[in-house]
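Changelog-adjacent note: as of this version, every example in the card shows the full chain rather than a window. The one below runs 1323 residues end to end.
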Amino acid sequence: MSKEQPQKSSPHASQWLVKWLTGPELLEMAGAELHSRGEALARKGRVLTWGVEANTLSGLVRGRSGVRHEVRLVAEEDSLEAECQCSRYHQEGVCEHVVALGLVWLAAMASQEDVSRPPSTDVDLPWTPEGVGEWLEAHHVTHLRRVPLLALEALLPKGFGATHGLYRIAEEPLTSLLDGTLELPTTYSAKARSLLVQAAWARAESEAHIVRQGVEYERQHPEPPSPTDARLVPLVQALQQVRARVRAHAVPRLLSLVRCELNFTDKPLVAHVHEPIYLFGSRSILDASLHQRCVQVDLLPLLEGEDAVTCSVCAPVPPALCLHALTALDSLLVSLGESRRVKENAWLAERLFEAPGRQLLSALDKASLLARTRQETRSPVQVSFRLEGVAHGTPHLRAYLHRPLKRGGLSKGTPVAPRDEAEALATLVSPEEVEAFELCRLIPEQYDAGARHRMLVHALKLLAHSSRLVLESRLEVPLRVRSVTIGFTFEEMGEGEAGLRVRPSVAGTPVPPWVWRGQLHRSAPQPWLYVEREVPRVSLVSVPPEALAVLGSVVEYGGRLPAPARAEVLRRLGGVESAFPVSLPPSLEAREVPAEPGLLLRLRPTGAESLEGSLLVRPLPEAPPLVPGEGAEIVRGVRGGERVRVRRALEAERSEAAALLERLELSLEEHGHFTLEGPEAALGFLERLEPLTGPGVRVEWEERPWSVVRSPDARGLQVAVRRERDWFGVEGGVQLEGDRVELAVLLDAMRRGHRYVPLAPGRWMRLTEQLREQLSPLADLAHASHGKWEVSAAAAPVLDGLSEAGAEVAAPPDWRQLAGRIREAQRMKVPVPTGLKAELRDYQREGFQWMARLAEWGGGGCLADDMGLGKTLQALALLLHRAKAGPALVVAPTSVCFNWVREAARFAPSLKVQAYREAERESLLSGLGARDVVVVSYTLLTRDVARFSEVSFATLVLDEAQAVKNPDTARAKAVRALNAEARMALSGTPVENRLSELWSLFRLVFPGLLGSRESFRERFAAPIERTKDPRARAALARVVRPFMLRRTKGEVARELPPRLETVVPITLSEGERRLYEDTRLAALARLKDAEGPRKRFEVLAALTRLRLAACHPRLVDSDSPLSSSKLERLLEVVDTLRSEGSRALVFSQFVKHLALVREALEARGVSLQYLDGQTPAAERETRVAAFQRGEGEVFLISLKAGGTGLNLTAADHVLHLDPWWNPAAEDQATDRAHRIGQTKPVTVTRLISEGTIEEAILALHEEKRDLASSLLSEADGAAALSTEQLLALLRYGPEAESTTTSGGMLPARRASVGLESSGPSPA
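Full-length structure tokens:
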């Protein structure tokens, strides 16, 4: 379909339109989601006509449904106003049609600017290489040095490139034109040169403009939009961390002017962000080979914290830290929050967080099957590894295959041929045998003898414990393998000879010297192979350099020593006995002395914060230390000129070392070494070591030893509070043995959970438990910002506590006044206002007094009681208590504003309450005084925030405060602009999806309590949401606990009458059953070939159709003659209730279903009220009041429109016609009747069609409530389930009594689904 081209008039406009109608202003006005929708409309050509007259831009925009809307943007001297006919504009004060019109006009202005601008005539532009370089640096566009001249083609007159041979210089850098270093061909005329230079400067200035806009946008919007799929939160957090690293090296650009293209590849999962090589106005050229010129973000390594961003232009190998990488990351972050990419984002979430688990489970199943198959079909052939060629000095290892013989047993074996390799490998069990087999195959291919030897030794080590290794001359016995160091044995000569004989030895056994002659002459690589055929055994003999010298002498000259050489031998042995094993005859053996007990720890610092060490023993002080339990059993040395020796108890050494390691919580590496990384590990080790030090554990430091001193308590602490504009700063420190430790360092250590603070190199202070307990509250409430620590008013009691504990606290007068007000407020007795025409329950009185004390000193808080516990009544008591302090403002959703006016008239008639929508607005706000209360909707407040911000209110109450959970919306910004002395929020669900909602709420009611957005995300949101950090969770709870009060019905409202819940099973007629099954099977057939996001979309659509079919045949086939079994059963229930004098609320998710029910009830003469999303606010109030007065036996309500904000205690029955995915949404609807003020037991009835998807959804409620709670709250409940889980629901039919999914098991259909429980339901 071709796009409609807009009919344009001149874009010229007044200075105010130019000033106020900018890209950032549009984004600020609309928010990210609406701005994205507007971009889509503009891109698709939905702006049909537009024109500018004076300070007004007007146009005709075609919406998504084809309706044409007249849109106006009017710029005044101090603001920009918008108008549109659509319903969204009337609800929110802005819409996507306004954004689309503004973007089209901005593009036209930019295009006109591009064509008319003559940069070459600007005398301020540099022209030397140095000047151009400085200009590029100053404007953050140094990346233009990599942009080729080809990018200028679209800026030049048509045909310029062909006429002037632009292709010959196309790859030259654009900046070479700017600084004059490029010599243009002589064929270029002066005019052509000027055009080329102008185009280059236009490109440069355009890029600089995009960067300026990007920096400004980043300043105004430091956070990306929330992802459309909650499962993508970890990805957003990982992207933000990478972005922070890249941002330190590059500057952002305004994405709406860059227009990147985003694609994903599945295997591997990589995001490809393609950027036009030329960006200017509304035109762009995309490079032909997109994947060769793009930024790639490898998502799986990124989630693991690795550098996973590359740029084809600047950094083909990660990490990319360039402007292109930053633009790509910003594009990716924005795309994750765009409503138009809901399907793509759902696919991405599925691919990142759901598919890996399924694939891994499938792989494990496959591996298990393969393992069983191998065990069951084990081949009768066997493999052996034969060490051959030893006798000829050419040892080699060869694999043999042994096949079964007809007479029984196995053949002698034949070398494994290439054709037999697969069969041979299948018989091997351990990975070591498989690796050895591969080495046998590779060794003959090596040309280097050293490489062949190393591979042979490695193969023998792998087979050291395998029964398959044999010696060629002893095939019947497995060959044993050991590693030893060569030694020497000194023996007395035979009778008649007084000399000594020296022979090499292996593990203490003498070996003829000639055995080693070949290795010595060839300088054979070590270890050497020594084969004992009789055992059989092969020893891998290591020969240290000291032993090599002695061995060479013994082999070449023999090992005879004359008698006179004895003394010299003994003298020289002392220097080599630690290098290799030595055995001596009794006549030469040293005198045995007792071994020195105990262990030795040698320590040395590595860097400023880590330690290395060795755990050793020194049984003989005159000999070098040794690893406990390793080495020679005899240790010799010289003591006072006499040779002495000790006999080590190797097993005792090992036991003693193991016990010490356990007490020190230490593990060793090779040769007794260990490493302790970081101060917590190193200093904790030293503290554990200190009480153990003594004769049994000696410590030696190779350098100056480290020391740890303990901190004083609060009595040694100095704290100073200073005033900094609209916040307070805190600083101070503690003096310790001549060193000063700053308070900032102490707080940072507390925040990170560190127990040690550095004082000087090798000198540390340990934070005692007492000081940690005293500083912990301050560490919770203080926030690091730009090198300083900030505190809010909430820290006043904490600093008071430090002062009482002995700290020296210095504070300015206004802080001390604030602290005094807080102390007085906490001690203040707060009586219930006499003007309150209601008796408060105990918990309500407690809630009112809690709010009153906070408000007394200007604090803010959130009353988060369960639905139905009377939050409105408690807030009215607060407004009465503070009535004399000045006017109050109540901000609430449109649907409950009337309830506030009515409840105030009933319980607080002395207050002068006026609804803003019904009043003369300007005169109302200008004449406010004591006892005045204005009730306004969030929508009207957003529209008229300028008026409200000029009024100072004594009290501000935000009802259903979750409505402002997104801090970037115009609604939240409007609330922040209000002036109020005390601020209170009312919300039963202060956190619905993520912790950032809590930060947004407290930013409105208690600014500064949770710090900046970035600080909150780093301190609390990221560690709690990503790693479930218990320390961060506990700290956040401590911070908000004094300012959030939450009580559940189960805790406080025991006087509520019971709530009885029952399920009424509906048996479908034969015709209904066929229709349902036809619908289900047709959906499954359509889904056979569906893949990816499209499959998920079709599954969701099919599930909705099934839910409709389970309710009424006419909801899926408007011409169906079939009656509805569910409707017939409902009519029976209603007749019973009428006969008993009861009244009922009837909820359904489907408005069409309610219409059919309404038609049937009216036909029976049942009086009723009706409410859905199209009911105007004033009419809602009228119908609710009428029902409460007794007008209507039944109230039909759509679940979304009436699930919150209504008080309908006149009903004592609640009927749910169709189960909703999220049980919490149904509970909210039920609480319209089961709430404070209800005097009768409330019966909740769910009508469930047997054998349909409704049973499966109910099973999620009953048996998998945690799974149901993972669905999207309040909106489309199926979006958070995987596609396979959704398909399991779709398959729920006669042919599957139970269905297993990756998410769990759906229970088999029950014969009787009726379940009843009495008493209050869980909150």
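Structural remarks: The first helix runs from residue 15 to 20.
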